[in-house]
Amino acid sequence: MSIYLPIAELSVNIILLLSIGGVVGFLSGMFGLGGGFLMTPILIFMGIPTNVAVATSANQIVASSISGTIGYWRQGLVDFKMGGVLLIGSFFGSILGVWIFSRLVVLGQIDTVISILYFALLTSIGLIMLIESSQVIRDRVRRKTVKRKIHYHNWTHKLPFKMKFYKSKLYISAIPPVIIGFVIGILSATMGIGGTFILIPAMIYFLRMPTSKVIGTSLFQIIFVTALVTLLHATTTFAVDAVLAFFLIIASVIGAQLGVLAANKLRGEEIRALLAIIVLGVATKIALDLLVEPNEIFNISVIRSLF
Amino acid sequence: MNFKIFLLTKLFVLFLISSASALVIGSDEEEIYIDANFSGKNLLVFGAFYSDPSQARDDKSDILIEVVGPSEDVVIRKKESFFGFWLNSKSVGFNDVPGFYYLSSTNEITNEFLNENNIGLLNKKDTQLIDWSALNIDWGNVKNQKEKDTFYAALIRTKESEDVYRKVNGEIQIIDGNLFRSYIEIPNTVPVGQYKVNLYLIIDNKISNEYSYNFMVTRVGIEEAIYSFSKNYPLIYGLISLLIAIIIGLSGAEVFKRFRKI
Fold first, then answer.
1. Which of A269, A284, B186, B244 could form a disulfide with A133 if both were Cys (CB 3.0 to 4.6 A apart)?
2. A–B interface: beta-carbon pairs under 8 A
3. Cα–chain center distance at A74
4. Residues of chain A scoring pLDDT < 50
5. Residues β-bridged to residue B66
6. Confidence band (pLDDT; 50, 70, 90) for B12?
7. Which of B75, B224, B227 sits opposite A303 (nearest CB)?
């Protein structure tokens, strides 16, 4: 059974679409990741145009991050003030990102740039996850626990515009979170990702936020970044496919719930290592598409139907 | 319904209307609707060589059917290898090219004939015969003729691979010497808009008569409604897409909460 996607302008199998949404949702629920970094390339592999894949992924992440935020908010693990400061940066970042995106569409380089960005992103995520999970597995075998420094000062503490973040027990300059938000905004708009896997380490290592508050706060700000990105894409690149988004959202929300349940029952590291391998596999496929000489070196795009 | 009776009745009506014409044609469609389940359609074009039914077709007479879809502007981009990466480099803009083109004849018709009579887009085998000035092309930084030819060939090739450009021979059936019919495959990838069907009666390599008519291809259904809504009211469309995401996201969290309580 297939369905016609009105914006992507092609028919896809509904079962395949739901499976992809479900699997990506499952992985994101299990690891607390947004899943956009897997969703967008998989949609592109399916033949969905790059711009539609990016814009629609952003729309899908709105739903999954709302679902996630509520869970953390109920447990009091969202720092709304920090989220708000991050959002100031993200607001401008996503506007710049959508502008860059539409320029690249006009220049005909969007596919290549997205591929290269995704290759870099997935390779780094995959390798980091693989190294991290193998270390944990090794440490577990050796019965070793790693101790981390609780608090220390770095250069970011010398910056002006200091603000108090009670929830995170921080007194830091507003500049680093705004810059982090700005970068996330650009990435979100150009790649159709929430950016959790960049945001979370940045918040932990640069802002020194307590780890417990990081995931909820990042999910909270991702709702608004991806919502803004969705609106900007809908109005400038016209690439948001509501039908595609609908099926992906349904499947990914259900998948995410099952993922959270599974995460409580399964050992994390082995699955994390497996996910790392999947991510590296996707990265390899992207690299091959860039490096192997294509069968048809010419490609066509319809600029304007004159009817 | 018996096709022959149907055809003859329709032809008789057409005969009354256009008795002066030697070439009489008809078609079964004036409008083609494409919806989500549209998997292509065979458009029927039929007619008679001569309005006098007793006059039979001889070997010297041929029928040429040309279907031209609505114009569009396309860009052909060429990938080149930069440090091992295959990136889009040079591009050529072809303006006002048909989004659909079909050429069918009873016998092989030469490119020279097509060029002399200014018919045919698909004569790529002989690019020297193409009247480039008649085409609205933005060559960009593509300068030499050989490279221009490769871009033109790529345009035809990609359109052919999408099944929207076709050139065929011998698909026109001839019935009782004087009648002909042909089913033209309209794939679901065709652009919407006005299509023109041109029919030529060729006798002794000369166009003896021609006849044209139009039909429309329209997209219908919920998918079309969504598509045009997204173009006409992008902000509202974006907000609705968001609203759907918010509602499903919230209800997902709600269901999840109950899940955990069990």
1. A269
2. 187
3. 23
4. 306-307
5. B103, B198
6. low
7. B75
- The pTM score is 0.78
pLDDT at B205: 79
d(CA A289, CA A283): 10
The residues, ordered by sequence, that sit 6+ positions from B154 with a Cβ below 8 Å of its Cβ are A296, A298, A300, B76, B78
Instruction: Say whether A303 and B72 touch across the interface (CB within 8 A).
Output: yes
Q: Give the closest of A4, A253, A291 to B223, CB-based.
A: A4
Give the Å distances, CA to CA, from B234 to A101, A223, A241, B131, B230: 17, 20, 12, 41, 5
Distance from CA of B114 to the nearest CA of A (A): 26
Q: Which two tokens stand for residue B83?
A: 């440090």
Fold of B3-220: Immunoglobulin-like (2.60.40)
Return the pLDDT at A183. Answer: 92
Is A173 part of the contact surface with chain B (CB cutoff 8 Å)? no
- One-letter amino acid of B217: V
Name which of A59, A250, A294 is nearest B79 (Cβ-Cβ).
A294
Asked if the interface predicted TM-score (ipTM) of this complex is over 0.90, the answer is: no
Angstrom distance (rounded) from CA A168 to CA A207: 10
Q: Which among B115, B143, B141, B142 has a CA at the least distance from the CA of B128? A: B115
pLDDT tens figures, B189-215: 788 888 988 888 888 778 888 888 888
Instruction: Tell me if chain A has a CB within 8 Å of the CB of B250.
Output: yes
A291/B86 Cβ within 8 A: yes
For residue range A269-303, what is the model confidence (pLDDT) as tens digits? 777 787 888 889 989 988 988 888 878 888 888 77
Res B7 pLDDT > 70 = no
Distance CA B259, CA B253 (A): 10
**Are residues A298 and B76, on separate chains, in Cβ contact within 8 Å?**
yes
Tens digit of each residue's pLDDT (9 = 90 or more) over A83-92: 999 999 999 9
